[in-house]
C-alpha cells in the first residue's frame, strides 16, 4: 500500500474503533511539545501492540513503517504540532495522538 492508501484506511477504520477507557476516560495525557514523555509512551505502545509491525500515519503523503522497538526514535523526529495515528499494519489496533498532548487507544470493531 502507498502512503495515501494507508492514510485513508487508517482514518476510515479509526472511526469504528472501540476506545479503551483509562481512569474512566478514553483520552490520557502523554505530554505536549517538549513535555511529551517518549519513554512512558513507548511502554504504553509496547503493551498495546506487542511485536506487531506498525504504521505511523502523519498525513496522506507521510507514513513510516516501524515497530514498537523503533517507535520512540521515529516519534522523536515528528513535530508535536500535528495529530498522529499509529496503527497495526492490519489497522485493527490504533493509537491516536492529538497535538494538544493527549492520546487514546482502541481496537477496530466492525
Structure description:
The protein has 110 residues and is an alpha+beta fold. Helix content is 30%, strand content 30%. The chain has helices spanning 3-14, 38-49, 68-76; strands at 17-19, 28-29, 54-59, 62-66, 84-88, 93-97, 102-108. Strands 1, 2, 3, 4, 5, 6 and 7 form a 7-stranded antiparallel β-sheet that branches. Strand 6 (93-97) and strand 7 form a beta hairpin. The chain is globular. The model has no long low-confidence stretch (mean pLDDT 91).
Write the layout of secondary structure elements.
Layout: H1 3-14, E1 17-19, E2 28-29, H2 38-49, E3 54-59, E4 62-66, H3 68-76, E5 84-88, E6 93-97, E7 102-108
Antiparallel strand pairs: 1-7, 2-7, 3-4, 3-5, 5-6, 6-7
Helix pairs in contact: 2-3
Amino acid at each position: 500500500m502507498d502512503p495515501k492508501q494507508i492514510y485513508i484506511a487508517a482514518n476510515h477504520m479509526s472511526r469504528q474503533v472501540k476506545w479503551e477507557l483509562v481512569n474512566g476516560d478514553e483520552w490520557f495525557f502523554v505530554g505536549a511539545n517538549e513535555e511529551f514523555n517518549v519513554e512512558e509512551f513507548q511502554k504504553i505502545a509496547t503493551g498495546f501492540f506487542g511485536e506487531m509491525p506498525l504504521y505511523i500515519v502523519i498525513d496522506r503523503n507521510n507514513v513510516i513503517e516501524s515497530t514498537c522497538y523503533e517507535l520512540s526514535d521515529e516519534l522523536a523526529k515528528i513535530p508535536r504540532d500535528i495529530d498522529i495515528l499509529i496503527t497495526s499494519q492490519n489497522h485493527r489496533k490504533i493509537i491516536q495522538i492529538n497535538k494538544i498532548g493527549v492520546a487514546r487507544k482502541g481496537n477496530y470493531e466492525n
